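User: hey, got a sec? need Protein-export membrane protein SecG folded
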Amino acid sequence: MSTFTIFLALIVVVAFLLVVVIMVQNPKGGGLSSSFGGGGTQQLGGVKKTTDFLDKSTWTLATLLLVLILVSNVAISRGGETLDSKALDTDATTTQPLPSTTPLQTTNDDAPATAKDTAQ
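Assistant: Yep! Here you go:
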């Protein structure tokens, strides 16, 4: 199993967890946090702590996802290809054919009209 495959699997898992954490949140204060502490009674950490946990976990997972994506770029196999520019290679020979030195032949039909041709 290559390193890139491991990074890809981690990216998929973190992205799935991030979607789950975001879907649990409700922008108006409802969602999971209201089911734990709604109605004025304090249960299982209360509303404020659940909201703080969801907010911190969202930022943590988003940061982790970004870092995994950036680090996975290093793990991509390049196939032994060098990253140097071919334009900087002084040993390279050109394989382009040289232009021919024979002039193009023109016929009278292709030549521009002269005053002598128009007088006839």
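Quick note: The mean pLDDT is 74. Let me know if you need anything else on Protein-export membrane protein SecG.
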